[in-house]
Amino acid sequence: MNSCSIDGLEDKILKGFSYVYRANKEFLTLDDPYRHRCFEAIQDRELMKHIVFNNDYLKIPPVYTFLCYYAEQEPKLEPADDPWIKKSVGAFWGYVFRKVFGYENAHNDLLPGRKLNFRSASYFTRD
Questions:
Q1: Is residue 111 within 8 Å of residue 118, measured between CB atoms?
Q2: 3-state secondary structure at position 125
Q3: What is the model's pTM?
Q4: C-alpha–C-alpha distance, residues 107 and 94, integer Å
Q5: Which percentage of the chain shows pLDDT scores above 70?
Q6: 2: pLDDT confidence band, cut at 50, 70 and 90?
């Protein structure tokens, strides 16, 4: 995964996310399926390889790869109705790519078909 190691990723998120995304800091302790799945995803080495590959080579936002995967895995994620949850999921993946993996730029993109009620997400570049 290039310089994108998932070793210690959860600790890095728990230590820094709340400072960068203050409005979303409660997401880290929320008892919500989206939060649980986000932390499950960062611990899955194979899934993370796909998320990084899709971002780097196909310009598919990490949120979209995450949603596509967990829309089909039991228990399936239900469509998100809460705008704060959707922003928190985006903030989570933004933190992973920008602050932990060191990508410099975010490019917002519309998602095909409003996957699980998510309308847009960003992919990340290093330049």
A1: yes
A2: strand
A3: 0.94
A4: 11
A5: 97
A6: very low
Q: Helix, strand or coil for residue 120?
A: strand
Distance CA 94, CA 72 (A): 23
Q: 15 vs 88, 104, 126, CA distance in Å?
A: 16, 20, 23
Per-residue model confidence as pLDDT tens digits over 23-56: 999 999 999 999 999 999 999 999 999 999 999 9
Per the structure block, which two tokens stand in for 86? 């959707």
Phi, psi of 73 (to 5 degrees): -90, 135
Instruction: Name the DSSP class of 109.
Output: E
Residues 6+ apart with CB under 8 A from 32: 85
Residue in the structure block whose two tokens are 């967990």: 70
Residue 125 to residue 127: CA distance in whole angstroms: 6
Which alpha helices (DSSP H) does 21-127 contain, by range?
A: 33-42, 45-58, 62-70, 83-94
